[in-house]
Write a structure and sequence with these properties.
Largest sheet: 7 strands, mixed
Number of domains: 5
Strand order of the largest sheet: 4-3-11-5-10-8-6
Strand content: 5-15%
Distance between the termini: 94 Å
Organism: Eubucco bourcierii (red-headed barbet)
Radius of gyration: 31 Å
CATH topology of the largest domain: Rossmann fold
Helix content: 40-55%
InterPro entries: DAPIN (IPR004020), DEATH-like_dom_sf (IPR011029), LRR_dom_sf (IPR032675), NACHT_NTPase (IPR007111), NLRP_HD2 (IPR041267), NLRP_innate_immun_reg (IPR050637), NOD1/2_WH (IPR041075), P-loop_NTPase (IPR027417)
GO molecular function: ATP binding
Shape: elongated
Number of strands: 22
Number of helices: 30
Structural class: alpha/beta
CATH superfamily of the largest domain: P-loop containing nucleotide triphosphate hydrolases
GO biological process, one term: innate immune response
Keywords: ATP-binding, Cytoplasm, Endoplasmic reticulum, Golgi apparatus, Hydrolase, Inflammasome, Inflammatory response, Nucleotide-binding, Phosphoprotein, Repeat, Secreted, Transcription, Transcription regulation, Ubl conjugation
Length: 745
């Protein structure tokens, strides 16, 4: 007998379990079967199929592999053959799982970078670089957690554990809910890809039989669905067996980019769904999964930006938060090596990036590492010396845009006409919490230009059955926010504004909304300040070929002045209490503008802020331009520590030798702050560092500050962790003849 095909061996074995009489009854019932998109087995062939293996082969040829199994399961169920029905159902689930794993591996292993227009596919295995992920075990952490915009609790701190993609979920624990938080470009989607590939290859997350990953950008186009519908979209080429959802504990649902849904997540509990087959509005179905009214024993992984945490926090209980902090020191170098695949080029590029303190700090953010590598690769390919590179997020992005638009230089006039329309689309999407656009929206904005559109937007064919045509999205939200900011200051964008309800490019409306409620506009506002710098205006005109209006600078100046007290009153202390002010000023990076904003202000008062290296650099930049600063108060703030294995590049040349106290710990958490406070024009009188988790190394920095600062008269330290050594270091500074301190608390 010929060797039986593996695809039908399971069906053949099940038919062998029938008695001769039951086998004949099964064949008789086959004559009455009506199968859509399949052929009925001719009666003469059915009569010749006297053996189970022959009959299984006939069924496979007529109904197809999946159809044959479905028909057999239906008939055996009619015949009350429960054991055989369960056996086939179980085997069908196993077979489906194997196919699904293969599908997942193919879908998530290979991807295209932002340079997808060049057609280069990359492997997640060769490009994924280890991220620092901190898991916080605290049920209410969503009220305090955040990245650069969040706060640091001074008490009742949650337990923090550094995890990897392999340890994101705890073993032997059912129904876990993990919220993975990260700013745009921090690597949330790459982390999800890594999780999916590890599961598909069987190397990790083996506690799950199925992982269903929903891209929220795609999901946002869906109006109504059931949980079964969502699962089916994850594997569109095959029907999902009903038994898959029965083993809830073995299922992980992933919602990647939750903020793209723009849901309020306020829904009466009695309207939620408990049946995975029930079709309801998408928001209701998603909320039902989050609130655990449907498939409550399954696990969830939700990736989101910090701005969506509040709405998520209203509907989740018992979740743990994991925050992506970016690339640690070793990973930054590893990323350069993986990107260049040439050790010599990687070393040259990494040494250059590391020689620029600001640029190196930006490389903590994965998307910025990618942009820096992309730019340096272009320079190295021209045999150019890497003598200068951009210092702000905006300038790095503009350099990337310059490189990207070179592909459209054949028709420069079309590109200059195209860019304002692209910026209008970006801004419209940002205001509406929208990151994916349908074909009619592309046409409405006049962007249906086949030569230019692929440079800026990714095109994706809609899933079968979704009547939306092709859909488009910016290659990264970071870039959409950049173009949205450009909408407000491009001279050409004024031509697109009319009185018919079109999006208005009034920068005052943007800033007012950010101040009142739309904190998700932070990146747009930051880009706005970067684009309004004189350097950016000249670069855009000379290199990119677009004109940026400088008229918005006056509105931006008045807005910053107004948010910190406006017109002063007698006895009123004029202070800066918003950390983002310093970020915006660093992004513009202009001494005169910074002095105009800070002129008349005398105090810094920051509370419960987690100061990243970029934040510390922004604070330091502003302090150096701020001669009128008299008092600095930091309460409950934490300082991201420079990796002690790294050497911080020296910025600026100083003829003076190192102070003897500086060698103890040159890179203490407050190193950048203390260095800035020593600038020649400083008239600081009061420094308060209360509950800022200071240690002995901080006392070494403070000792240097006390010994050298000509006007510092009052120092308040509200920490109890300084230790005897720390106190001695402070005393050494106090004993210096140049110390002017009068009050120490």
């Amino acid at each position: 007998m010929a060797e039986e095909e593996p695809a039908f061996s399971v069906l053949s074995q099940a038919l062998q379990g029938l008695t001769l009489q039951d086998f004949q009854e099964f064949k008789t019932k086959l004559l009455e079967v009506q199968v859509a998109r399949g052929w009925n087995i001719p009666k003469d062939l059915l009569e010749k199929a006297t053996q189970p293996c022959t009959l299984a082969s006939c069924m496979g040829k007529s109904y197809g592999e999946d159809g044959a199994m479905d028909v057999a399961i239906g008939l055996l169920e009619e015949m009350n053959q429960r054991d055989l029905t369960e056996e086939l159902l179980g085997e069908k689930v196993k077979e489906h799982q194997q196919k699904y794993r293969k599908h997942v591996a193919q879908k998530f292993l290979w991807y295209r970078e932002v340079t997808s227009c060049l057609g280069e596919n990359l492997s997640i295995s060769s490009r994924y670089t280890t991220l620092t992920i901190a898991r916080r075990e605290h049920e209410a952490e969503h009220k305090a957690v955040g990245t650069s915009q969040g706060g640091a609790n001074s008490s009742n701190s949650p337990t923090t554990t550094v995890v990897t993609t392999q340890t994101l979920f705890k073993p032997n624990k059912d129904g876990q809910v993990v919220v993975l938080v990260g700013a745009p470009g921090m690597g949330k989607t790459m982390t999800v890809r890594k999780v999916m590939v590890e599961w598909a290859e069987g190397t990790c997350h083996t506690q799950f039989d199925y992982i269903f990953c929903m891209d929220c950008k795609d999901l946002a186009l869906t109006k109504e669905a059931s949980v079964v519908d969502l699962v089916s979209k994850c594997y569109p080429h095959s029907r999902t067996p009903g038994k898959v959802l029965d083993a809830q504990k073995k299922i992980l649902f992933i919602f990647d980019g939750f903020e793209a849904l723009g849901f309020s997540l306020i829904q009466p509990k009695d309207e939620l769904s408990s049946d995975p087959r029930e079709v309801k509005p998408l928001e209701t179905i998603v909320l039902s999964l989050l609130k655990r009214t449907v498939l409550p024993e399954s696990s969830l992984l939700v990736t989101t930006r910090p701005t969506a945490l509040q709405s998520l926090g209203r509907c989740l209980e018992g979740e743990c938060h994991a925050e992506i902090l970016g690339f640690p020191a070793a990973s930054r170098q590893e990323f350069f090596q993986r990107y260049f695949e040439n050790n010599n080029k990687a070393d040259v590029a990494f040494r250059f990036a590391r020689s620029n303190e600001v640029l190196y700090s930006l490389c903590t953010i994965p998307i910025m590492s990618w942009m820096v590598c992309t730019l340096l690769e272009q320079e190295l390919s021209k045999q150019k010396s890497l003598v200068e590179c951009s210092k702000t997020t905006t300038q790095v992005t503009m350099s990337y845009l310059s490189w990207l638009t070179k592909a459209g230089r054949d028709n420069l006039q079309d590109l200059q006409w195209f860019l304002p329309k692209l910026c209008s689309l970006a801004a419209d999407g940002i205001w509406k919490h929208k990151v994916q656009f349908e074909e009619d929206e592309i046409k409405e904005h006049g962007l249906d230009q086949p030569d230019l559109l692929p440079l800026f937007l990714n095109e994706k064919v809609s899933r079968k059955g979704v009547d939306h045509g092709n859909v488009y999205s910016f290659t990264h939200l970071h870039l959409q926010e950049f173009f949205a900011a450009m909408f407000y200051i491009l001279e050409d964008s004024e031509e697109m504004v009319d009185g018919s309800g079109a999006l208005q490019n009034d920068i005052r409306v943007l800033l007012e909304n950010y101040s009142k409620s739309r904190k998700d506009l932070n990146s747009v506002v930051r880009f706005l300040f970067g684009l309004e710098s004189q350097k950016s205006i000249e670069y855009a005109d000379e290199v990119i070929g677009c004109r940026i209006s400088s008229q918005a600078r006056g509105d931006m100046l008045r807005w910053l002045q107004g948010r910190h007290g406006g017109t002063s009153h007698p006895g009123q202390v004029m202070k800066v209490s918003e950390l983002d002010t310093f970020r915006f000023l660093l992004e513009m990076n202009e001494k005169s503008f910074t002095q105009s904003v800070l002129g008349g202000l005398t105090d810094i008062d920051l509370q419960n802020s987690k100061l990243s290296l970029c934040d510390q650099m922004a604070l330091s930049f502003c302090i150096r331009q701020w001669d009128e600063l008299r008092c600095v108060t930091l309460r409950g703030c934490s300082f991201e520590l420079q990796d002690p294995r790294e050497e911080v590049p020296r910025s600026g040349a100083s003829g003076a030798g190192e102070h003897p106290y500086a060698h103890e710990e040159p890179h203490a958490p407050i190193h950048l702050l203390c260095r800035a406070l020593q600038h020649p024009g400083s008239h600081l009188r009061v420094l308060r560092l209360q509950w800022c988790q200071l240690d002995e190394s901080c006392c070494a920095e403070l000792g240097v500050l006390l010994a050298q600062h000509p006007s510092l008269a009052q120092l308040e330290l509200g920490d109890g962790a300084l230790g005897d050594i720390g106190v001695r270091l402070l005393c050494e500074g106090l004993q210096q003849p140049s110390c002017c301190l009068r009050v120490l608390r």
